[in-house]
Structure formats: structure tokens, C-alpha cells
Amino acid sequence: MRGIEITITVLILSAIFGYLFAFIAGLCRLSTNPILRGFTSFYVEIFRGTSLIVQLFWLYYAIPMLFGIDLGSNLLAGVLAISLNYGAYMSEIVRGSILAVSKGQSEAATALNMSRFQRMRLVIFPQAVRMMLPEFGNYLIQMLKATSLVSLIGMHDILYHGNILRSSDLSAAPTVYLLILVFYFIMALPLIFLTRKGEAISKKGVASQ
Amino acid sequence: MNWRWDMFFEALPYVLQGIGVTIGLTFACYLFALIVGFGWTFLRRIPNKTINWIITWIMEFIRSTPPLVQLFFIFFAWPMVPYVGVTLSPFASAVLGLGIHFSTYIGEVYRSGIEGVEKGQWEASRALNFSTTQKWTKIILPQAIPPTIPMLGNYLIIMFKEVPLAATIGVVGILHMAESFGSVNFRYLEAYTIVALIFLALSYPSAILINKLERKMNRRFDKKAALNSMNESKGAVS
Amino acid sequence: MSESVVTKEHSQDTQTENKDVIVSYKNITKSFGDVEVLKGINLDIKPAEKVALIGPSGSGKTTIIRMLMTLEQPTSGEIIVDGKNLWHMEKNGDLVPANEKHLREVRGDIGMVFQHFNLFPHMTILENCMTAPIHVQKEDKASAKERSIEMLKKVGLGDKLDNYPSQLSGGQKQRVAMARALVMRPKIMLFDEVTSALDPELVGEVLEVIRDIAKEGEMAMVLVTHEMEFALDIADRVIFLDNGVIAEEGTPSEVLEHSDNERLQQFLHRFRS
Ligand SMILES: Nc1ncnc2c1ncn2[C@@H]1O[C@H](COP(=O)(O)OP(=O)(O)O)[C@@H](O)[C@H]1O
Ligand SMILES: [Mg+2]
User: Fold this and answer.
1) Which candidate in A50, A109, A128, C270 could, as Cys together with A123 as Cys, close a disulfide (CB 3.0–4.6 Å)?
2) A54 vs B76, B196, B207: nearest CB
3) Contacts made by residues C157-163, CB under 8 angstroms, sequence distance 24+
4) Alpha carbon separation from B110 to B36, B44, B146, B221, C272 (Å, rounded)
């Protein structure tokens, strides 16, 4: 089946940028700078408050109109929509996990005379990341599912090719869509096991309140 | 900048025509998911390893494949399936597709609620010789349901945001209206912005409401934790 | 230093430059919201002095030592550590609230052991000890490792180097916490009820380690404790804190055996019965 490489490309790029946005936004929301905090909260609430499909259409159809610029490609629009959307959701996990590392950990680090940055890097962050793993895995599966939306903005992914097949032979529809579902499931399997592994890791090595 | 207020005000009433369908579909899907979710929870309690394994993986399959493809399957492919296939309206297809997709999540919520009831409660209801029905209606469910309410509320909001997917099979909700406005006038910007604003206006306040509810619930159910920490500080005296 | 004679009477000398004082609390008050928890604490601690801090729960013992560790900021008053003002620094001739950099400079001489251990769960026992010397004191890795192993051997955990905290008993965890603080070579060590989170049968092993450290003598120690026998044994001075003030102080025998302070008698009575 064709289009699978598009699906995987979109997934990988979305995941990379999604986690990146999640960490940046999550840390910014914990910052003491009110402007930075306000701005990130705005981003997070906008993207969590609206639908991914609406964001996708908005980025693809509306943004070029609004600024007279073209995002260049539907790949960029697709990846941006997915990563900004899930980045917003996952930033809450980043923030929550950092806050969930017990206060005693940071106090012990202070008692060892670590700087604020060292406390974060050596003590808080490694523990917070362990807590994030299972949810990050779950969101990876969500992102995989979300990649199917890029067919709606004209990308030639698996679903797009399936739709073409269906329109040339209507009676093939059951086989075509069942196959696509199975394809997605096969791609999801390693992610499901990865998530379970993440759960196992996160159970160890964290001091939470 | 290329924003046109005249287009905005022209598109607004047009797009708003779809809001009834969008909200109606949300609740229809939600109700369907709540009911089917019960089915999953029930099926997973069957004490047979093989059945349990099969059910678990069926749920996993539904949950980890895209709802968009599931919608297409139900709308385009189901009528073509020999013998059992029937043609469904776009609305009914969406209820079925999104409802089943989210029922697998809802089923997990129910399960977490039931598993959250302490083991002692089960033992106590056995010790008091309750019948199975009495055990569930009087002991287990009254304790299992309240903690799940905020989670269930969250899923209502999540489903609300997934409902526009139904536009792809022709359900005329707000997204579909915006699309058709855009294609007629060659102006997508204002119409899609309106859709985004509607979602924001409805889901943001609901999310805050759910959040409050959750905190209230947590306080009620965290009595035990509060008690523990009290004992701890008392322990420091001696 | 271990034979350093401790003057019986509490020194009223509050001069900053006093060479005989390593820590000095000057008129320290602390409020949480509207509640004044500490109401003017004056306290001098000499180098190598062992001070036991006792008092009912909520009297402010923890708050006193947390302010020295910079975990809590005093509401008013000053704390002088080795001649340096802890919570204030000089800027263009004015005394302004300390910034992080200043706090780090001054608190480098202070170490602390917590009631709930606060070991780093994602690091092995050895890493728990090595991390701060390497990153904070910029010691080279080999020597930090060597000293950490030596310290862990000293507290009796030489065979657990690669274990994680979750694999240890409470008493072992607390001994690691002490080793972790000791490798930093502090001049003052603070102990906040380090045995009260432990099962009774594990208390002994931890007190034994503290006794050993105390015997070496070079470090000043402030111990918040409810182990009166232990305080009597190792402390040079006992301070009874009540309602946010120092209500009684003196040698262990003066305070624990010969005082006629009524509140103190009530307090001690609860431990004897
Ligand atoms: N962070 C805080 N916020 C509010 N009140 C506090 C805080 N820390 C301590 N207190 C209060 O200050 C008082 C003294 O606490 P603490 O120093 O822990 O006493 P002790 O260690 O002697 O039991 C107590 O009444 C406690 O409730
Ligand atoms: Mg205390």
C-alpha cells in the first residue's frame, strides 16, 4: 500500500516538534516572568480549546489568506497543526510532572548548595521526565491517529490512496478501509508496547508527594 | 493583513446554522459512548482469560486506529459488506463511529472507578451476605461512580472537539457550513476563524467547570490522605 | 578541636567579627501569614559545638534550622555565618536582600539531614553522594568517587554502592543521607529529627553514626531531636524552645536534669512516662 512513508514522515516530524513545543511551553508556564507565562497560557488554551481539524484547516486555508503568505506546503501545515495541538496538551504533562516532584527533592538539592539550574537539571528534571513517559507514549498513539487528517489537506498518505482506490471501485471499500485500519494498528503496536515500557520505568525512580 | 469584517459578519449567521447539528451530534455520540462503554466494562469482567484477552485487544484496536478512517469505514464501506451491510445517514454513521471509538475510553473510565473501590468494600459486602445486585447497587457503584464524573465530563469536551470530523462524511455541522461558505465565496479565513471561536467559547468555560468539579471531588475523596498527614505531624510530638 | 572546652554560660557577645562564633542568629523573627512562629531568637553557635534543640511540636525548631539552610527566609533579624550576613548582601554601600548567588556563597559551609531522607531516587547510593561534589564543588570525578566510597564505608554501606534508595531500609537511607551531606565537608551540620521517621529498631544504627561524627569533633552540629538520652550524651549545650522563644538553655545536665522551668518539666515528663 502506498502513502505509508508520508504517514510515517508526518508522525515523526509531528512527534519531534510536539515534544519540543511541550517542553518549551511547559517550562515557560513555570517561569516567574508573567509575560512569558501569559503568552504560553494563551497558546495552550487556544490549542486545547479548539479542534485539531479546525486548526489544520485554519493553518492550511486561513493563514495564507490572513498574512498573504503561503506556508509553502501542506506538509508544513499538517506537521505544525498536529505538533502545536499535541504540544499544548503535553505541555500540561510537562508542567504537572515538574510540579509533582516532591518539594523535599529540591530542598535536599539546595542543602547540597546546588544552583537553581543544577537543581532543575540534576534532580527535578530527570525525575519529572520519568513521570512523563507513559503519557508521552499515549500521545504518540494519538498523534499517529491524527496523521490521518493530512489526507484532508491533499497530502498523499495511506488514507488518501485508499480514498482513490475506493472511488475507482466502490465495492472494494470494505477491503480498502479494513486494510488501512490494520495498517494503522500495526504501526500503533510498537507504540503501545513502548508506552507500557514507559509505565514500567516511571514506576521506579521517582519521589512524588 | 487581509481580514474582512464584512465577510466575518456575512459568514457568522451562515456558520451558526450548523451549531444545532454539532451540539446534537456531540450529545448523541456521547450518550452512545456511555452506553457502549458499559458493554465493554461488562465484557471485560467475564472471568475467562481468552475472552478477556480478545476483548482487550479489540478495544486496543479501536482505540489506536484513527476515528476518521473508522468513520469512512462505516459510511462508505459498511453498505458494501455482503448480507449485513446497511446504508446509514451521515449523522447515524457519525454517532456509530465516534460513539464506538470513544466507548473504549469511557469503558476504561468505568473500570478505573470500579477498581478504585477498596478491596475491603467487596469483602464487607460478602461478609454482610448481600446479593450480587445489592452488592453492585448499594455498595460498589455508589462509590465507583462519583470519582469518575470529572473524567467523564472531560470526555464530553474531547468528543465535542472530535465531532467536526463528521463534516468529512457530510454532516452539516459548523465546520461543514464554514467549508461551504468558503468554497462559495473563496474566503476561508473568516469562516474558519468563526468555527475556532465557537469551539473556544463553548469548550473553554466547560473545561474550567470540570476542573472546579474535579478539585471539589478530590477534596472529598482525599480525606484519607489528609488524615494520614495529620497523623504524621502528630507523630512528631512523641 | 575535639577537646575544645565549651563555656558554660551563653555568650551574650553579638559582635559579628567574633572568631569564636560560626553562626549567630540576631533577633530573628519568622511569621507564616499572620502567625508569628519565632519571636526574636538570639543564638550563637561556636565552631565544633554540638547543640541539641528540643521543644514541643510546632515550637519552631525546624523553622530555625531551615532558615540557616536558606530553605525559609526570616521575617526580620539577621543570621551571620562565619562573619558573613546570610540573608543580606552589600550593594553600593546598602544592605539589600541576598540574591541566589550570595546565598550559594554563604551556605556552602552548611549541610543538612532531613527527617524524610530526601535521597534522589533516580540515582544510585554512590551517585547520590558524588553528584554535589562534582557539580557544585567542581571536584574531579575520580577523587569525588573515592571520597564518597570512603564516606559510605564509614556509615557502613560500602556494599550498597550501586543500589538505589528504594532498595534500602529507612535506617540505611538515613545513613546515606548523612554520607551525602558529609562528603561536602560542611562546617555546620543540621539534623532535623533524623530518626523520627524510622522504625524503632532502626533508630540505634543512625544514632550510632551521628555519635561517631560528633566524636570526630571538627564540625558544629545542630540537632533537633526527641532522643533525650542521646542529647544528654553528645550535646555540649541544650536549648529548649517554647512558643517561638528560647525558654531555657545550658549544659545538658542543667537543662535536662536540674531546671525548674515548668513548661520544660511538663515537656520532659512526657518522655519519661
Ligand atoms: N510553610 C509553612 N507555612 C505555614 N505555617 C508553617 C510553615 N512551616 C511551619 N509552619 C508553622 O510554624 C510552626 C512551627 O513549625 P516547625 O518549625 O515545623 O515546628 P517544629 O519543628 O518545632 O515542630 C508550626 O505551627 C507550623 O504549623
Ligand atoms: Mg519539625
Assistant:
1) A109
2) B196
3) C157/C125, C160/C125, C161/C124, C161/C125, C161/C126, C162/C124, C162/C125, C162/C126, C163/C124, C163/C125
4) 11, 11, 11, 17, 54
Q: Is the pLDDT of residue C6 over 60?
A: no
Is the CB of C116 inside 8 Å of chain B's CB atoms? no
User: Of all protein residues, whose CA lies closest to atom 21 belonging to ligand 1?
Assistant: C62
The CATH number of residue B14's host domain is: 1.10.3720.10
The number of domains in chain B is 1
Residue A168, in any domain of the structure: yes
Q: Is residue A208 part of a domain?
A: no
In the prediction, which pLDDT does A201 show? Answer: 83
Predicted confidence (pLDDT) at residue C169 exceeds the cutoff of 70: yes
Number of domains observed in the structure of chain A = 1
Q: Residue B15 is part of which domain span?
A: 5-237
Report pLDDT for A71. Answer: 60
- pLDDT value for C152: 96
CA distances C253 to C47, C226, C258, Å, are 21, 16, 7
- Would residue A198 count as lying in a domain? yes
List domains and CATH numbers for chain C. 6-269 (3.40.50.300)
Contacts of A83 (CB under 8 A, 6+ apart): A13, A14, A15, A16, A17, A18, A20, A21
Q: CB of A100 within 8 Å of any CB in chain C?
A: no
Q: What are B64-113's pLDDT values in tens digits?
A: 999 999 999 999 999 888 888 888 999 999 999 999 999 999 999 999 99
Q: What does the pLDDT look like over C178-208, one tens digit per residue?
A: 999 999 999 999 999 999 989 888 999 999 9
CB-based contact, A125 to chain B, within 8 Å: no
Can you name the residues that pair with C220 across neighbouring β-strands?
Answer: C188
Which of A97, A113, A121 is most worth mutating to test chain C (most C CB atoms within 10 A of its CB)?
A113
Interface ipTM? 0.90
Residue C244 Cβ < 6 Å to ligand 1: no
Query: Residue A30 belongs to what domain range?
Result: 4-203
| Residue C57 CB less than 6 A away from ligand 1 | yes
Q: Is C82 exposed, middle or buried (CB count within 10 Å of its CB: 0-12, 13-18, 19+)?
A: middle
CATH code of the domain in which A86 resides: 1.10.3720.10
Q: Against a cut of 0.90, is the pTM above it?
A: no
**In angstroms, what separates the C-alpha of A127 from chain B's closest C-alpha?**
23
**Cβ–ligand 1 contact at C120 (below 6 Å):** no
Closest residue in A to B61 (Cα) is: A185
pLDDT, tens digit (0-9, with 9 covering 90-100), for C8-26: 344 444 444 556 899 999 9
| Set of chain C residues whose Cβ sits within 8 Å of the Cβ of A104 | 114, 116, 118
